[in-house]
Prior knowledge:
By secondary structure, this protein is of the alpha/beta class. The chain has helices spanning about 20-25, 35-45, 65-80, 100-105, 120-125, 135-145, 165-175, 195-200, 210-225, 240, 255-270, 285-290, 295-305, 330, and strands at about 5, 50-55, 85-90, 110-115, 150-155, 180-185, 185-190, 230, 245-250, 280, 310, 320, 325-330.
Amino acid sequence: MKIYPFFIPHEGCPHRCLFCDQHSTSGRAFRPSPEEVSAELDRMLPPCGEGEVAFYGGTFTLLDAVQRDGYLESAAPALRAGRVAGIRVSTRPDALGGDIASYLRERGVTTVELGCQSFSESVLRAVKRGHGPECIPEAVERLRRSGLRIGLQLLPGLPGGDRHEAVDSLEQALALKPDFLRIYPAVVFRGTGLEDLYLAGRYSPPGAEKAALWCADLLWRCRRAGVPVVRMGLQGNPALDSKSMVAAGAYHPAFGQLVRSCLWLRALRRIAFDQEISVRVHPADLSDARGHRRANLEALRRERAGFSIVPDPGLHREDLALGDRIFTLTELTEFT
C-alpha cells in the first residue's frame, strides 16, 4: 500500500520517553500545518489511488481537538475524491480512551499504529513510558471493535531488555493478531535520557550486528505466524546517516538487509551439501542471500571453496535450490 507520510514529531505526547527523539528519526524539525498538508496532498496525490495519508510521530489521539480535527480535515477532500483510500495515524496504547476509536473511524481513519515498544512492565518502567503492558490488549480490542487495521511497534534492546524479552514481547504481540508489525531495535540518540544512562555506564544497547541476529529470530517468528513486518530498523535520513545524532545502538542504513541476510546465512549453512556447491535463488533474493556487501558469500567461500549463489527466475521468492532439491527459507531457519 502506498503511504503518503506527514510527521508531527512529539505533538500530543504527554511527556518524553527516555529513548525518544522524533526530530532525528523523522528528519523533520517542525510539524506541518493542516494547510500545508492539504496543499502537499493536492500536489502529490494521483487522480485515483488506494493509498493512505499517514500522520506519524507524536500521539495523534492526544492532540487538542482543533489540531486533530484540522489534520483529519486536511485529508478529507482527497478521501472524498477517491485520491486515497484512508488515513493512518500513530498513537500510544494508553491514549485510546472513551469513544476515540469510533471517532477516528468516522473521520476516515483506516489504520492505527500503536507504539507498544515492549510487553515487559520493567522495561516500560525503565524508559519512563508512562503505562504498563496491560493497556495494550485493551487498546487493540478497542481498535478492532471499531473496524480499524492495527499495526504494533516494538523496540527490542531497551534498558532491562535482552533477547529473551524481545522474543517474549513479540510472542505477546503476535497473540493479539495485529495486521502488521514494525520492529525498531534500540538506538541511543544524543540529548536523550537514554544517552544519560549509556554515558553513566548503566545501559549498553546491542549494536547493529547483535540486533540483526535478534531481529532475524523475530522476523522468522512473524513469518511463521503469517504477520507482515513492514519495517525493520529506522528509515535513514541525513541526520542519522551522518551519525551526528547517534551515540550508540543498532542504527544501520541497511538494517533490514542485515536482518534478512542473517536468515539467508543460517539457511545456507543448514543445507546438506554433497558434491553440488552452487545454490540457486530467485533473482530478487540474490542480494540478501549473498549478504550485505557480499558478506554471506565470502563467509561461505571460506568454509567451502568455490561456493556460489546464482539467480534462477524459475524459483519462487525465498526458495533455495540445490541440484534438484528445493527448500524454503522459513523451514531452514527455524529458531527455538
